[in-house]
Amino acid sequence: MNDAQLLRYSRHILLDDLGIEGQQRLLGAHALVIGAGGLGSPVALYLASAGVGTVTIVDDDTVELTNLQRQIAHNLSRIGQPKVASAAQTMHALNPDVRIHALQERADAARLDTLVAAADVVIDCSDNFATRHLVNAACVAHARPLVAGAAIGFDGQVSVYDTREAAAPCYACLFPPDAVFEEVRCATMGVFAPLVGIIGSVQAAEALKLLAGVGTSLVGRLQMLDARTMEWTEIGVERAGGCPVCGQRPSASPAA
């Protein structure tokens, strides 16, 4: 690190768990962010401000006025612009040293296979089950840790899926691809603005911990937030024997 970086990241370096070595790992890391909306905004900004060396961000959408209630990477002047370009502009303003690959596309299975293979950690900030399952399958195939979050109304959830650990579940262990889940969108249900900031910040924290090699991740633990009461609930989940993606069967139980 040069003198400017030592000063910029000094508050990280002062942390005994992180230090210079952890910060250097962040500087050399590559994070893949799927989605540049409500969850993707705080994730992208914190990855950039924390000094993750390379961030690839993928989203096929453009900025709309209704996004600005919660999607803090964007502003009024960027309505109509690709969300990934808007997010990249905000990230560069925070930290011009971060290499950003802004991809305006809806990644299919083949594309995700390439993108996930090139990343050290994947943060899923998408808003639909189809994309989440495609991302999860690619992460399992390439043994990449997946930090997944979701938020709607006043309810949010977040976990880490890392099948490099023998007992750790993948996303499909909890939410089987062939199960029927009601697809609820912000456009019809609404979403409490700070909720995506809370969940997205937890996702960013988990990704940074994984990249820096510090702390204990949320692997095997699903955290759920009811923002009406600001109450967190946590359950523990094991790998599922009948999972069609990672190959074993579920066992959910209250976490200690």
Find the CATH topology.
Rossmann fold
Cα Rg: 18 Å
User: Biggest sheet: strands, sense, closure?
Assistant: 9 strands, mixed
Helix count equals 10
The averaged pLDDT comes out at 93
Give the class-level CATH name.
Alpha Beta
Class by helix and strand content?
Answer: alpha/beta
Low-confidence stretches: 248-256
Tally of discrete structural domains: 1
Helix content: 25-40%
Task: Write down how many β-strands occur, each being a DSSP E stretch of 2 or more residues.
Answer: 9
Beta content comes to: 15-25%
Would you list the SSEs in sequence order as H and E?
A: HHHEHEHEHEHEEHHHEEE
| CATH architecture descriptor | 3-Layer(aba) Sandwich
CATH superfamily: NAD(P)-binding Rossmann-like Domain
* First-last Cα distance: 41 Å
User: What strand order characterises the main sheet?
Assistant: 3-2-1-4-5-6-7-8-9
Overall body shape = globular
Key attributes of the depicted protein:
nine-stranded mixed beta sheet; alpha/beta; disordered C terminus; 20% strand; 9 strands; Rossmann fold; 36% helix; 256 residues
Description:
The relative contact order is 0.15. The chain contains ten helices and nine strands. α4 runs parallel beside α5 and α6 packs across α7. The chain is α/β, with parallel strands linked by helices and 256 residues long. α5 links the parallel β2 and β3. It has a single domain, classed as 3-Layer(aba) Sandwich (Rossmann fold), CATH 3.40.50. The protein has a nine-stranded mixed sheet with strand order 3-2-1-4-5-6-7-8-9, sandwiched between helices. The chain is 36% helix and 20% strand. The radius of gyration is 18 Å and the shape is globular.
